[in-house]
Write a structure and sequence with these properties.
The chain has 338 residues and is an alpha/beta fold. The protein is 33% helix and 14% strand. The structure holds iron/sulfur cluster.
Length: 338
């Protein structure tokens, strides 16, 4: 535990999201100590850590079961030795995003909407991430480059929606976020801003009064797509954040990735989607994992995923069954599998 966290505990004051963000667990030995796991029983890959370091926020780690190597949350952040396996078809940029990157920080893949990489980092490193090899440094726009991105959007009247992605768009400060939202609100033809974020799940303290106020006051229709893969990721603080956001009219959706030995079973997916709905979040997408180099150990087959969706349809009302999709490079939208 860092001196900073010790002094917070002594002062009896809850840590702010910025303090939590600056005190992420990055040392695997520390994570193992907290989780009471013996490193000799499950080696990790130092080489994988060089390429994509460990990053885990403490509020997320608190939800991992101690002493359990097979915990579904641990599996999402623990660097496996299998990340070094080279598998044909698994590549650094499976979606060929470079081809749709006309300006730094702006991806224009789909008709009617563009994606802005609003922050060059995330609060967590998900080992299966499809952007784990993405060049965020080259996609961190300066103020001038932001102006160019806004001009690009304003000049194309077909663009009605902006997707804020990342990294994690909520990793920027409230002041920066407010500025970004105001700039977008000033572009006449924009109707909607969609925020793709994992922060409300991994550091729920991010849902500050200031952020909620700025969302409530925007003229834009706001959609927040959180990224939650397992019901164990939801605790009281996360649920409070969902409520605060939906109370001010933000449409709350969830997307998950289907991941081997994390949530690739019907019970896990049923529990997750029921729990989300209880707290005002509707299931949106269940993504097939992208074929990213170093992530094959998370991959599930189309047949297995399709069977799971059939079971979900037999067990849940239709509105609680997410759409099973895959992104194929060059296609004008996601491809529905089942
Ligand atoms: S939060 Fe999203 S973008 Fe960030 S590492 Fe996880 S999957 Fe990737």
């Amino acid at each position: 535990m860092t001196n900073h966290v010790v002094s917070l505990i002594r002062s009896d004051r809850a840590a702010t999201w910025q303090e939590i963000l600056s005190d992420l667990i990055t040392d695997p030995q520390e994570l193992l100590r907290i989780l009471e796991l013996n490193p000799d029983t499950n080696p990790y890959s130092l080489e994988a850590l060089d390429k994509f370091p460990l990053k885990a926020p403490r509020p997320f780690v608190e939800r991992i079961e101690k002493g359990n190597w097979h915990d579904p949350l641990l599996r999402q952040i623990w660097p496996s030795v299998f990340e070094e396996t080279q598998t044909e078809g698994f590549v650094a940029d499976p979606l060929n995003e470079e081809a749709f990157n006309p300006l730094p920080g702006l991806l224009h893949k789909y008709h009617g909407r563009v994606l802005l990489t609003a922050a060059p980092h995330c609060a967590i490193h998900c080992r299966y991430c499809f952007r784990r090899h993405f060049d965020y440094q080259a996609n961190s726009p300066s103020r001038t480059q932001w102006e160019e991105a806004f001009a690009y959007i304003a000049a194309d009247s077909s663009i009605e929606e902006v997707i804020l992605s990342g990294g994690d768009p909520l990793a920027i400060s409230d002041r920066q976020f407010n500025w970004l939202l105001q700039q977008l609100a000033s572009i006449k033809q924009l109707t909607t801003v969609r925020i793709h974020t994992r922060l409300p799940i991994v550091i729920p303290q991010r849902i500050t009064t200031e952020l909620v106020r700025c969302l409530a006051e925007s003229r834009l229709r706001l959609v927040m797509v959180v990224h939650c893969n397992h019901a164990q990721e939801l605790d009281n603080a996360v649920i409070r954040g969902f409520r605060d956001l939906s109370d001010v009219g933000v449409t709350m959706l969830n997307q998950s990735v289907i991941l081997k030995d994390v949530n690739d079973n019907a019970d896990a997916l049923i529990d997750l989607n029921k729990a989300l709905f209880q707290h005002n979040v509707l299931p949106y997408y269940l993504h097939m994992p992208d074929q990213v180099a170093g992530t094959e150990h998370f991959y599930v087959t189309d047949q297995h995923a399709t069977e799971l969706i059939k079971t979900l349809h037999a067990s849940l009302p239709g509105y609680l069954v997410p759409r099973l999709v895959r992104e194929n490079p060059g296609e004008p939208g996601k491809t529905r599998i089942a």
